[in-house]
């Protein structure tokens, strides 16, 4: 394994091990996801058809809100005992740290999304099993973009006093193209349309993923040193 | 190992470091004394390339540390106020993380041997969350032991250590120095700071008021000079 890949792997290993032991994010996110489901149900009333029609938007809103919570905390562990400073002092390309953090966030968000998806299926009576295949394409595509830009903004705001306020203010506008594309594709998938019908949205999602990851890799060193 | 010329650091109108120059050769230890707020931590952070000076020049291990901080960092080991440890990892896991990040050999045998050197081998698999401040400091030193640092920058390294820990740390620093490494130990405690130092520098109000070989000064003389210089600086400020 190259020096770069080893560093990416060790950051991922450290983040997952820390999360497995502390369970700080996992517990909060699961509870938050359940609360979201109840809130959506109260807001839209008992009309099942209305709820089902709103599912694609609600689903991604749920992912993004849970992502806001989880991603915003992803650099908190680096704050204790000045570990952030220690990371700055390590030699080599700092984008390896970004990629490790991004992979850790992807694992965490994927877990939350699977749980949310199952809960949506059960609570809103949506048949998910027949569309698992197409969903397995659109969910990772949307999640990579969300995690890429979220990890970057989390790093950017980690050392700022008003980070809880600034993080969503920065993140949500940047998520608009992703959200638009992801909701459109998810809607088509849940209506049983083939993915080819929404290929233009899928291309937009893939392009946004590439752009966000590349920006993260190229700018992380400056953010860490700022 | 260090060549710093006319370093100055200001935040707006507040000057925290002013016209500081110092040289340090391999195998030398500089004790940096000064009261709280004298600028010791700022100077150490600049030497560690963690902070850019407003003006001045800095070379570390023959590298222009302001132009190429990455290259200089390979030679620098830092033990600062924060111990750079993750609370939910064990001592061994912390060392593994930092050693891989530094590009070193992270075999368990090597990591355990480093923990043995800092007398933490008994707590190798315990989570750092349960450690005392002194144990965290030892773990931070084990990280430095595993690195390839030729210049150690230590900020109040004796804080939080018991008598035995202080003795151990002094021996460790002495061995590092004899091995050709250079050290800067910032402290406001006289007794602990001077044990291994060849030179003593007094910093107050952001200015270097004295830089002399330890052999030229008796303990009492140094105490008198320190009190006089810091009081004078306080009065001028």
Commentary on this structure:
The complex is a heterodimer of chains A (226) and B (237). Chain A is an all-alpha fold and 226 residues long. Chain A has helices spanning 3-22, 24-44, 48-72, 83-89, 95-123, 132-157, 163-190, 199-225. The model of chain A has no long low-confidence stretch (mean pLDDT 89). Chain B is α/β, with parallel strands linked by helices. Chain B has 2 domains: 2-85 and 136-236, Rossmann fold; 88-130, no CATH class. Chain B has 8 helices and 10 strands. Chain B has helices spanning 40-47, 69-73, 91-101, 108-117, 133-146, 163-178, 190-193, 219-236; strands at 2-11, 14-24, 29-33, 55-60, 63-64, 76-79, 151-155, 182-187, 199-204, 207-213. A 6-stranded mixed sheet of chain B has the order 6-7-8-3-9-10, sandwiched between helices. In chain B, β9 and β10 form a beta hairpin. In chain B, α4 crosses α5 (133-146). Chain B is globular, with a radius of gyration of 18 Å. The model of chain B has no long low-confidence stretch (mean pLDDT 88). The chains are: A mainly alpha (226), B alpha/beta (237). The A-B interface holds A 3, 6-7, 10-11, 13-14, 17-18, 21-22, 77, 80-83, 85-92 and B 48-50, 70, 73-74, 76, 78, 80-89, 93, 96-98, 100-103, 127, 136.
